[in-house]
């Protein structure tokens, strides 16, 4: 922590082009009016596919009627792009990153290329429009729900609408100006209402764990194009945990309250086309294997001890998954947590109140 | 009828002129004394520092010496990031102190700080000094209150964590108007002080 920001920027300047090379635009605010149309069909206008984010073939389960979610979008107290996305991210080597070992980072591996996005930077920007291994992606983080998620963005960028629903970041795409609550990954207002984004896994872990597992990782630098005091988190701290992150209070009323668990307790959740399911993260890391079900299909969660995270798999045949010293035994073979021979269901960390609010009555596997 | 209206307008104008003159006398009186000038200086500087700290533009960080400026600072300086908050264009690090420079917020904070300082200077002088003007000690407290309000305003919704309130459309709307309210309240307090000045004294 002795390196100054200028030293850090100087040291990482050469690597900055890695992030620059794939960026599709200069990051203007774009997006048009502050209030998108409720649906594109009402206006008879549409945006060409070239200016739309790519969407998934199947829609994710939503715990509420889409209009109900849309009606519950509220102002977060900042205007559109008041929280500026990073549109020209620059990366530096791990050795020069001004991070403490216990600082949270959001890690992404794509085509063997590892990148870390420090929470202390994303808390001020929430969206990074990046390109990884040639693919345009958006790495997103919502401080109020504790969720870090990745989306394919195609030729368009995402921005921060300044609106929230269930305390969750509501993104807008700069192609159609549709509004996308991050956790739902589904447009709830605008021309793309009802469409679902293509997602990829973002791992919430510590800098020390990520660096150990991915020594060649590059790290998002503070050369974001904006001036912020990146060492100070306006909501509190994760290292150690305090402020909003440790408080039982939410800043905005949740869509549904569920007092089965402390509102800020971290759960690893997954949602499919059929439903949603959550696993208590602390218990999962201790017990290593937990099971639950969605619509009668078993889902198994396994812990990744090295990164202190977990993965969830559909297990319709209810095959036996047993934790062993160096991984998990499935069908007589040993696998690492992220490579079980089952269909992976995308999962991510989040605060309990966020999952419970978006998916009322969601199963909670303790 | 029109003569009555004209007379009324002239009376109102005369009243405002007298109020401004009285306020001017009170301010000049306060600044003619050392304790008045000291109060103004301490109060203004303190308020500006608290205002910038409330915005989280001023605080402590890792030790260093640095000055970095964004590209195109003029365009950035006018970009509003939330009500009455604008984009910082520079970061200054001097030892453990970090300062984000947002020119419009510095200007707004300075204007509020000057108003707070003048209010307190006039009130302190009136309370401590001879009967140059007939102001009670309550003026000092009244002057401080809007400053306190605007201090809250600068922190935005995160202050809700401290006071235990949940954000709602109403609460956020109130927060949006605290800064202009504080400014108006400070000017109002100063004019109210003027009403207590006896020009013949």
Strand order of the largest sheet of chain B: 1-4
Broad structural category of chain B: alpha+beta
Average pLDDT of chain B works out at: 81
Structural class by helix and strand composition of chain A: mainly beta
Structural domains of chain A: how many: 2
Region (Disordered) (chain A): 25-55
Organism (chain A): Haloarcula pellucida
Protein name (chain A): DUF3179 domain-containing protein
Biased composition (Polar residues) (chain A): 36-49
SSE layout:
The complex is a heterodimer of chains A (about 375) and B (about 200).
Chain A: H1 5-12, H2 16-21, H3 66-71, E1 74-75, E2 91-93, E3 104-110, E4 113-118, H4 119-122, E5 127-132, E6 135-142, E7 147-152, E8 158-165, E9 168-173, E10 179-181, E11 199-200, E12 203-206, H5 207-213, E13 218-220, E14 236-238, E15 241-243, E16 266-271, E17 276-280, H6 281-287, E18 289-294, E19 297-304, E20 309-314, E21 321-324, E22 327-330, E23 333-335, E24 343-345, E25 347-351, H7 352-358, E26 363-365
Parallel strand pairs in A: 4-13, 17-26
Antiparallel strand pairs in A: 1-8, 2-13, 3-4, 3-12, 5-6, 6-7, 7-11, 8-9, 9-10, 14-15, 16-17, 16-25, 18-19, 19-20, 20-24, 21-22, 22-23
Chain B: H1 2-31, H2 34-54, E1 58-69, H3 73-77, E2 80-82, E3 85-86, E4 90-101, H4 103-128, H5 138-155, H6 159-163, H7 169-195
Antiparallel strand pairs in B: 1-4, 2-3
